[in-house]
Amino acid sequence: MIRSTDEIRAGLSLAAAQVQALLDPLDNRILLCHALDVSRVSLITQSERTLSAEEAARYGALVQRRLRGEPVAYIVGQREFFGLPFEVSSAVLIPRPDTELLVELALERLPPQGRVLDMGTGSGAIAVAIAHSRKDAAVTALDVSAEALEVAGRNAAHNHCHINFLRSDWFAALAHQPRYDLIVSNPPYIASGDRHLGEGDLRFEPSGALTDFADGLTALRTIIAGAAQHLHDGCWLLLEHGYDQAEAVRACLTQHGYLEVQSWQDLAGIARVSGGRLAMPALSA
User: Is 71 flagged in the annotation as binding?
Assistant: First the structure.
């Protein structure tokens, strides 16, 4: 831990020992690297360095924000996802490791030179991860939020990915778009009144990207009901959802005629993604 005799005078309200006790060690390291504009390796090699008053003040301000509950990703403006760096702000959800399962399943099911649609792209994490992994794919991503699309556009450019971004309330802007070989989405799925909305990082994230302000299944139903008009026959629809929604999502997919309906578990063993394949038209006799 880099120490400074000027910490208190520079504005830290907590002693270094208290900071370390209250902050997660990883959070503390990320904030310190950000305050000093150094890499993790540089932080280790400079472990005996003494902070200047200005550096201590900058670090202290970051610590105070974290102690008030602000997510580390918003404080430093970045989060890694699928091995790639992503800009994040309060306009978008923070990408989470659980969602990497959706990307992995999408990559397995996307045909060569396939067209894929990411609905409710937010930071662009899913779309960019797919486009970066599959240079042959034609990726389209949509969101209703202009601010989110600006963030997603910068993430695509930073990661050298070409993505067609559309501002759209779900399927509204897709009337004249060709059909897709795969549709993926991580839509708002937390039910209104869920206690988790008032806890942890979720308190700071955009509520409209977290909840449908209803039972948590509204957006999922909308996507399942409308996707068939935009998918090629025999192609997949994959949806991330809440820990207790897999059965309901599978039932909705089955109701709308999808085949091979199933759910996949994340690393914690929770059914996190469900999907199905659009039925092929019956052959006439």
Answer: no
Q: Is 143 annotated as a binding residue?
A: yes
Q: Is 120 a known ligand-binding residue?
A: yes
Domain layout of the chain by residue ranges: 7-68, 90-277
Q: Is 170 part of any known ligand binding site?
A: yes
Instruction: Compute the average pLDDT of residues 185-189.
Output: 98
Residue 74 annotated as lining a ligand binding site = no
Check: CB of residue 192 under 8 Å from CB of residue 212. Answer: yes
34, containing H or E segment:
helix 25-36
Domain 90-277 falls in which CATH fold? Rossmann fold (3.40.50)
Name the pairing type of β-strands 271-277 and 259-265. Answer: antiparallel
Q: Strand 84-87 and strand 259-265: pairing?
A: unpaired
In degrees, to the nearest 5, what angle opens at C-alpha 56 toward C-alphas 75 and 39?
60
Q: What is the pLDDT of residues 15-74, one digit of tens each?
A: 454 555 567 888 888 998 888 888 877 777 776 777 888 888 889 899 999 999 999 999
Q: Tens of pLDDT along 132-144?
A: 999 999 999 999 9
Q: Is residue 175 helix, strand or coil?
A: coil
Q: Is 234 labeled as ligand-binding?
A: no
Q: Does 60 show up as a binding residue in the annotation?
A: no
DSSP-derived secondary structure for 58-124: HHHHHHHHHHTT--HHHHHTEEEETTEEEE--TTSPPP-GGGHHHHHHHHHHPPTT-EEEEES-TTS
Please check whether residue 224 is in contact with residue 253, taking contact to mean a CB–CB distance below 8 angstroms: yes
Using an 8 Å Cβ cutoff, are 216 and 242 in contact? Answer: yes
Does 264 show up as a binding residue in the annotation? no
Contacts of residue 243, defined as CB under 8 A and 6 or more positions apart, other chains included, come to 270, 271, 272
Asked whether residue 121 is marked as a ligand-binding residue, the answer is yes
